[in-house]
Amino acid sequence: MGRIGASIGGILGGLRGSILGVIIGAAIGDWIENKFRGESKSSGKGAGRRAGESELVVLGAIAAMMSKMAKADGVVTPIEIRHCERAFDRLGIGGEKREYCIRVFRRAKGGSHTIYEYADSFADTGPAQSVRDIVYDILWDVACADGEVSPEEFEILERITANLRIPRAQFLWQSARRGVGGRRDESRRASSSADSSGSDPYEILGVGRRASDEEVRKAYREKAKSLHPDILRAQGLPEELMGRANEQMAKINDAWAEIKRERGMR
């Protein structure tokens, strides 16, 4: 199989027995040997190949979960398949990577595993929360692409935060940002502890309201550092998705600014 085969073997070895590992293995096979050969040669040695492995895991997780999102209201139709293929184009994922994503998508759509199981399996691979946040943001894009989030999709987007192991504040922030939260569950949002932006700024930064000013400042700095492009690349985030970090950074900056205003910090 050569160097790429060895790299893919490393991926599947690390994911052996996992739901995500099975679907990636079924989608790639020997095909990946030639398709990614040129990309591997330009990646350098050691850390470059490891980053490539992680990138395939991230892309595979996105494709599998997109497939199940498309199936949220029943059967995946040819129109929905084309819709998700266009979603890869909008994300800037082309060429061999796009073909790989479509292979995973098609495999996953016919399988019995749920989107929650794929999310659990992906989280088990250990990606940083910053990467999981970006993947979650992409799922929202898929749900909103046709101009309306169905009740089934809305339920998935709320429940899956637990499987991706990200704060529920992400769901509140996304639903408020995209203007769908109030229509779906006004009573729940009214009873939540979230602020007027639809999410709790302390939860976004991962600290409690009783944290000291210095603890909050440290949490903000760590969150900001986790979104540095070099960190994200090391975590396997494809170059095409790096722009998503800017949206996450804006959310963190808004939370930090809200806390500073509340506490009178400089």
Please give a structural write-up:
The protein has 266 residues and is mainly α. It has a domain at 1-126. It contains 17 helices and no strands. Helix 2 (19-28) packs across helix 5, helix 5 (47-70) crosses helix 7 (95-109) and helix 6 runs antiparallel to helix 7 (95-109). Residues 1-7, 40-51 and 186-197 have low confidence and may be disordered.
Instruction: Report low-confidence residues grouped into runs of 5 or more.
Output: 1-7, 40-51, 186-197
Level of helix content?
over 70%
Order of helices and strands: HHHHHHHHHHHHHHHHH
Classify the beta-strand content into a percent band.
under 5%
Global Rg: 19 Å
Count of helical segments?
A: 17
Rounded to the nearest angstrom, the distance between the terminal CA atoms is: 57 Å
Report the principal-axis shape.
globular
**Strand pairing plus helix content: what structural class?**
mainly alpha
Largest sheet: none
Number of strands: 0
- Average of per-residue pLDDT values: 78
How would you summarize what this structure contains?
The chain is mainly α and 266 residues long. The chain is 71% helix and 0% strand.
Characteristics:
266 residues, mainly alpha, 17 helices, globular, disordered N terminus
SSE arrangement:
Blueprint: H1 2-14, H2 19-28, H3 31-35, H4 37-41, H5 47-70, H6 78-90, H7 95-109, H8 115-124, H9 129-144, H10 151-164, H11 169-177, H12 181-184, H13 186-191, H14 201-205, H15 213-226, H16 229-234, H17 244-263
Helix pairs in contact: 1-2, 1-5, 2-5, 2-7, 5-7, 5-8, 5-9, 6-7, 8-10, 9-10, 15-17
